[in-house]
Amino acid sequence: MDSWVTGEMLGFDFETTGVDRFSDVPVSYALVTVVAGDVVSTSSGLVDPGRDIPAGASAVHGISTERARAEGMPLQEAIEMVADVVVSASQRGVPIAGMKLDYDLTMLDTQAKLLTGSGLVARGWSGPVLDAVVLDRHVDQYRKGSRTLAALCAHYGVEILNAHDASADAIASIGVLLALGAQYKELRDADPSALHQSQIGWHREWAEGYDKWRSGKGMTPIDPRDYFWPVAAES
Length: 235
Prior knowledge:
This protein is α/β, with parallel strands linked by helices. The chain has helices at residues 55-61, 65-71, 75-91, 101-116, 132-139, 149-156, 166-183, 185-188, 192-216, and strands spanning 8-16, 26-35, 38-48, 73-74, 96-98, 129-131. A six-stranded mixed sheet has the order 4-3-2-1-5-6, with helices on both faces. Helix 3 (75-91) crosses helix 4 (101-116), helix 5 (132-139) packs across helix 9 (192-216) and helix 6 packs across helix 7 (166-183). It is globular.
């Protein structure tokens, strides 16, 4: 059986108006097709979010409200287009690949429901998903330090050319996934659908541990929706 490492993957990333996946919206998207480690096509663009982009978010990704309004496609059009591509990949068995995809996929699902009445599952999506941070936490659970995309790129020797650009982030995330596959046979040899199911459990185990750690420090609990991967229900 061929490994997912040598097959096709669809890299996916949003840059957004903020960090709340249930209420914030995209300001740019990237969909990157990679086959056997090579980028064969990239689709990316700006999105008019229909609202002001907070200064803090613009400082991260460099996209201003004025530019998004002038150059971006309407939000509903962008959501429908991205959802169509993601669902099509799923129906062909092509893994969606990226970093912390429970954020991006939940935002896509939430906005698709709000704007079109149909979320990802209703449209025919069922995975599989390959998430760099979920896999990294599983295979190297006790490594200290940050697990941001930049940190994972540094750890696995992956070049990231323009951090917080959707295309660059999607490509770098796939680079991390390929490095994980090269280093860990258990990941490389796993069927993507089985790996998807495993990640559901691995993410929940991490969330439970993180929640317990926060409780021990007297911090507020995590949002119960954060236990669910790769798509969390709004309520």
